[in-house]
């Protein structure tokens, strides 16, 4: 449910205010809420970058290892 809600909100913002509309505090009723929203978004981006980096590192290390069934 949470993913569907976030997807819907993202869709609405992008179509009404453009691709980077979420960055403009003028598009939000409450500047404090916008600031908190951006902070949470940055935390999520940071976590995903770390996870993606970790997964790509694991794949590189294990590439060619029959133990993991990779080629």
Characterise this structure.
The protein has helices at 2-17, 31-62. The protein has 2 helices and no strands. The mean pLDDT is 78. With 71 residues, the protein is an all-alpha fold. The radius of gyration is 18 Å and the shape is elongated. It has one domain (2-64). The N and C termini lie far apart (37 Å).
SSE arrangement:
Layout: H1 2-17, H2 31-62
Q: Report strand %.
A: under 5%
Shape: elongated
The level of helicity is 55-70%
Major sheet size, sense and barrel closure: none
Count of domains: 1
Radius of gyration: 18 Å
- Per DSSP, the total helix count is 2
Report how far apart the termini are.
37 Å
Mean pLDDT metric:
78
- Parts with pLDDT < 50 across at least 5 consecutive residues: none
Structural class by helix and strand composition: mainly alpha
Along the chain, the helix and strand elements come as HH
Number of strands: 0
């Amino acid at each position: 449910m949470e993913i569907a809600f976030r997807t819907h909100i993202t869709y609405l913002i992008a179509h009404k205010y453009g691709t980077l509309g979420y960055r403009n505090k003028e598009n939000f009723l409450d500047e404090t809420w916008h600031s908190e929203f951006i902070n949470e978004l940055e935390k999520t981006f940071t976590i995903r970058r770390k996870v993606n980096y970790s997964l790509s590192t694991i794949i590189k290390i294990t590439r060619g290892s029959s133990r993991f069934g990779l080629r």
